[in-house]
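Standup notes
- HV: blocked on the assembly model, inputs below
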Amino acid sequence: MRAPTILTSVASLVVLLPFPASAMVQEQPMSLPEAVVVEEWERDQDILSRPARLHVRDVLLEEALLELERAADIKVGYSPSLLPKDWEVTCECERATIGQAVRAILRGTGLEISVLSDYVVIRERRIPTTSPVLNAAWTPTVSPTLMASTPPLRMASLQEAQGTVMGRVVDAQTQRPLTVAQIYVPGLSLGVLSSSDGTYQLPNVPPGTHTIRAELIGYASQSQEVLVVAGETATLDFALVTQALALDELVVVGYGAQSQATVSGSVSQITSTELERNSASTLTQALVGRIQGINTRSSSDFFAVPTVGGTGGQIPGEGTSDGRPGATMALEIRNLGEPLYVIDGVPTTDAQQFSNLNAADIESISILKDASAAVYGFRAANGVVLVQTKRGGRDEAPRIRIDGWYGWQNLERYNFKDLMNAYQYQFSRADFDNNRGRTPRFTAEELESYRIGAPGYESTDHWDLMYTPNAPEYNLNASVSGGGDNEQFYLSVGHVNQTYNFTPDDNKFDRTNLTANIQTSLTDRLTIGTELRARYERHENVAVAGNVDPIRSHLLTINSSWPHQHPFTGPNNDLINYDVRRLDRSVAILNQDVSGLQDDNRRQASGNFWAEYEFPFGLTAKAMVSVGNNLRQFDLARKSFVAFSCNDDNSVCTPHEGPHARTRNQLKRVDEDIFGQLTLNYSAGFGGHSLSASGFWEAEGGEYNETWSLAETPTNYSPLGGRADYDYEQKYLFTALGRYDGSYRYADGKRWGFFPGFTLGWRLTQEAFLADKLGWLDELKIRGSWGRSGREQGIDDWGYLGGATYNVGNGSVFEGGLVTGARPRGLPVTNLTWVTSESSNIGVDFVMLNGRLSGELDLFQRKLDGLPAPRTDVLVPDEVGYTLPNENLNGDTDRGFEGVIRWSDRVGGFSYTIAPNITLSRQKQGFRYGERYGNSWDRYRTGAVDRWEGVRFGYQVEGQFQNVEQIESHSVDIDGQNNTTLLPGDLIIKDVNGDGVINDLDQRPIGYSVTGTPILSFGATLDASYRGFGLSLVLAGGGMFTHQRNAATRLPGNHNLPTYALDRWYREDPHNPQSEWSPGYYPPFLNGGGPSYGTYGVSEFWNTNVKYVRLRRVELSYNVPDYLSRQLGLSGMRVYASATNPFSLDNVGFYNHDPEVAQDAALIYPTISLVNIGVSTSVGGF
Amino acid sequence: MRTLRLTLCLVALSASLGACGDWLTTTPQTILTDEQVWGDPGLVRNVLADYYDRIPLYQGLENGEWDEMTAFDEAMYSGNPRSFGAGNESITTYGFGRWGGNWGGFYDLIRDIHVAMDGIEVGGLPDAEKTAFLAELRFIRAMVYFELAKRYGGVPLITEQQIYEGGGDVTPLRHPRSTEAEVYDFIGSELDAILGQLGNAGSQSRANRWTALALKSRAMLYAGSLARHNAEMVSPITLPGGEVGIPSSRADEYYQKSLDASLQLINSSPYSLYQGNFEEIFYQDNNEVIFAKDYVSGAGKVHYFSLHSRPRSVRVTVYQDWGGGAISPTLNLVENFDYLDGSSGEMQGVGDGSGTASGQADWIFYDEIDDIFDGKDGRMFGTVATPGSTFDGQPLDLQAGVYEWDEGTGVYVPHAGDLNTTYNGQKQTGLDGPTPSFEHASWTGFYIRKHADPSADAATFAPGAGNWWVFFRLGEAYMNAAEAELELGMSSDALGHINALRERAGFEANSLTSLTREKIRSERWSELAFEDHRLWDLIRWRIADQVWDGTRAPTSDLYVLFPYKIIRPGHPNDGKWVFDKKISNPQYAPRFFRMGNYYSEIPDGAIGANPELIRNPFH
């Protein structure tokens, strides 16, 4: 048995509310204004008269109290030193009141009870007194009742001879006052609780040197020595350090919450304190590196740009993914694919809704990685992300928090940042001609003119013209939270404003989030509440022609513009130059004045409305309805403009129409969602057994409509399910969960699936035989789980229906009017069902060395069965006019490992925590229906069964030719033309099969997936604090993924190239084909062969198997002492400076590539580096 | 509504959980049930709108269609090298599947037609409407089979829905190819059968009896010419089962059927030859068009033909890789148009561009740039935009360069550059080109005028162009009639029909007095250039392999006509215009049509799924 702590009440209780009220005990303030004492007393008696049922026999007193907490759902406060040791009690209390039950347990101990707020506080029997000491300690916010826990009898007699210890308990990191911390003198029956401002007063301490100990759930206990002199008051402050693994911390799991101690599934949780410390504008970025198993990578592709049918335009797709302001990055759990998000109990697959939540509003995020997710059924195969927003605390004085920061953004890594100047570029082109055996397109004189920058030969750095360093970004949050006994509220407003580094005035993003979470108790048993959220997002960009994604046009401009051409011309150099390579990719037009505005607004509003009723016998019922509305308005107003063609001395300029069409596109998309839920929770305990069970029924419906496609996509589900958590003495843990889920996607009669899951846990340290022997081991838990969930894949909406689809194709114009087309549908799909996902997990959690070292390790597997595929052996003739639908035929398996280790300690005033984590997860392809191979090579090369996913084939490289003789004597034919096209510097491709010729047969695995998330990812967090100063670091890294350099970064086509390409093989004089070769790293420019053969083919040379560690964030903070900030009317003030993505250690830096970008030409917005300073503070509240 | 359902559902929960099963049954707005569609004439019309739109086209006005106009000898592609048609200038051989289209796609449409026919049969429409719709569907099916036959010869004639019963046995679904003659016979008999049932009188966008006759006129002419000209080949192209190759004995029969249909159109139909400017047939309402695929500018169905083809100097929109000047008609086509005086259309007094005295010996020094085109067939000016002409009211700036007299060598020295350049203060190369290879500007000295709606709006991305693609017009019926008559030995009738068209083009009445096959073919090209006839005509005449024989010969090479201005101050020729006739940039390959191109290759996948399909010759 671990050392008992006070107020284990809520924390150790298996709370089965879908959304338990903020349950961190230390946040429950205990203020009790004097004036209401009488009323309170009456209500207190009401608590004691509530019915209770308790069955314990010969158990320790403390356990009996725990039982009672569970059974009656009350909170019991006590000082453990008060409880007699080895005191066993029995209570067969049926139809008792709480008061009766507690008194029955305490019979014979000399202890009695009182009620403080909704706590039942156990104290020594006392004689009412108006002791001066008590009065002295009675600050308006300290309850007199609280002081009752000091032994008044002794006080009365020894008062003159005793001393007093007083002080304040705060969080070491935030300096926030800590309420209900227990301060006691071990060995003496002396103890008090800290009040809501963190102060305490411990009277009646005998003179002498004492060790005073402060304890609080969620924090490491702290002992300090103090010299107490009779009649004097000694001051002793405590700054408690968060304990890394708080076994009593509540973990939100699907349809419930469990204490960390009794969780047996694989669940990671991140809470508000960590989330508040980030400067990412979207949530996804804030998570990476902090939790094992969470992974992200910028898209491998450009923004999806669906054509807008008939309206004459295109708009950027949803789910876009790169580093630009406001973009949603894809997040994956254990590389399994995109997860399901559940925000305040409401599920959604829309990553945007998650990504654009205000991080400051979030209480906790739980990641369900294994069978725990099965309770979410059809959409849970890839894991579940549970988000819970903040609530006001009960009996908490209104607390106003303000947090704001201002930052400067830069793009540290970008392939085309450093481009060749005019001379370097033209020299390269001449070199290129020379290598191809042609006369260079420039004379030596022209090249010389470029070199010296003679008039007319000047060089322009287009990156410089377009890129604005230190683009500003700021973030402001204000919230107020608090509550009385009946009402609690949390209200907040957040605003983020972020510009691009490309013309920041014209390309920007801002978002405002509003949240209101309010609940009120109508009666003792009935509580109603609401969670309201609104979001307004605006993406403002230049409506530049060409690519619809305007930022891609910006990126293309950099390397598509020739350095010898300037975007501006005219006598004053302020006219748009017509004579440039591409006028639709000219820096001159990249602003709203010239090209117009593309305005993309999103408004989202949602509200949950719920009512909860507590029955007297441990049952709680809750009903919730949630409605959501998402509006996207896209408005593109593209202007036309005039460009000028000037003569040599810029004296005469002729206007030309620019390439833009005047265009106006206004598009709208509306999403509507509705969700209803009924839940029942029941918990009970008897003996060492505790059981909690919950059941739920839900109906979910959604639909979106787009003005441009008439598309409608429903999402209708109607699950029924539940979970049951059982433990015996918190030693043997068992959870069963299941969901009977109905999906609209399947034909009537095939809609329902059952998805069960089980988790088992065994806390070895709870076993007496082990606990005695291994004193250094605080906690050891072995976990195992198995669960089944689904994935809806390869099935179209209403695929089971026949009939005809309206509005397909282009339609026809009959008699001058457009008639919408309708088309008979293909064969109804009735034999395809969901993909089954089976997940298994084995894990171990441990805490040792007095909580200093802890960790979680997991081995996992996910098996997918029934992946849709065609029956390749049934060939229906094309003349039939349809193809057979897919069937559930194939399978895949993901396997992996993840772990996190934490070390936290305190040396003097310096406390720190370091927690590295690692995840390895890879898919192995399983069964493939009808896989056939032409020959053994074909099988080797294309076979899938039992192969790891993401194997990249390419050529192996043995080196580079150093001279012509080496090429001539090389016995392997590399280019298919007896090496006649090769030049020094070309790659020596390995003839793997030894046939003397390089062809496809020589390709071997050289890397991993170029699009997927890293197979190996790792991260680390480091937090350290010293006297109010704090340092926090987050590292994120990855490996086992590949970046392939695209032609744009390696061949001099019509595009400019980065300067790193100067380090290549070239002939010193491009006008002399016989001149000496100058060696370099890169091969000579395109010597006549295309990308198909060796040098420019897919080979180890152009592929990089990326390894990186990135400093995701570093923050230096200082907690301003309240005695300083009080002057400003502020408390709990924290100032900080941080840097996000300041640098990365990796193997792609030599070509200036961002390791987290997958796109081969790197033409997507890279990861932003941000430096910011900020302050967060409470207003008032001392 | 949704809220109400949810509420009901929640209420029902307290009684019984099962009551909410309905929640999962959603009613789509965009999916129509069989009952809804086939009993509602409005919705059947929607289905027809889809089918008409899916009638296969080889050349047309949409992206992916117009670019094939630049794949043969009518025009060169001169647009963006990353856009539609890129690479057409350097085709060395045509792939055997190049104009085969999507084999499976044809049959998808045929299946959908059968689904609709079966649905309408039981759909409860009044009999009269039912009959008319069925006839219209059969017309579309006949169109599809005609398009299939043009490409592949005989194909499996599927005339009802094919149902796969499951169990893996697909042999009942495998049908062999019918003979080429059977397919044409099927088309003919279908059209005869529906002639009296089709409604849509007066429509130019849906099939009526005249549309059926127009298809019959063309299809039967094809069948007749295949029967006749295949047999005239040194080694006729046939398969033993008759899948390709129609017996020559049947030629007259088919010609006669075609002629009957053509004569009905010419003599009894409400259509008449349009007497306004020739090019207006293609973008203005007129009574010559029998059947067209129509578009509506700004209303959701548009094409970008004008955006792509509009001359450089007057282009309106550059959109991504699109930006005007993409189609450069060849001199081959321009010279096919006769002079109105009856002389051959070859350009008079042109140099060879060699820069030598002999290459300049034939020059005529023209006062004005358009003098050289004086007196040409009026249809030429409606088909191509020539130097000196206007487009949308604006004069074109076509000038390849200048020729400056060099006293020393006694020859004119050419100077040319990029678009819109000057030479010693004078205009050198025009903004419209021509240049040998500058993108978005003419490479040949000409732009296309046919199909190009000249209004500026039509050349934009939005609203886009709304002019129609003409499937059938009365002019073609005249040409079809003339060809059939000549083959049937009725050459005086043929002369009458040809001369009627020539008269409209500005020729004197009865300008031709005798007729040969070659003359009739040349007239057909002049009349129907860029209307997706050139390739198919050469195929059915069985002369494609000779016209495009892959050598540097007058018909397989593409020719350009570059105008230059003379600089010879003080000389009478100063400021005059000369022209060079050259092979287009010689790096580009001559057109080469192989014997295997006469019939398209049936895709391997189709043969794999149906081994009964016999491959076409040479594949």
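- HV (later): unblocked. The longest strand of chain B covers residues 559-567. Chain B has a mean pLDDT of 93.
- Next: hand off to the docking folks.
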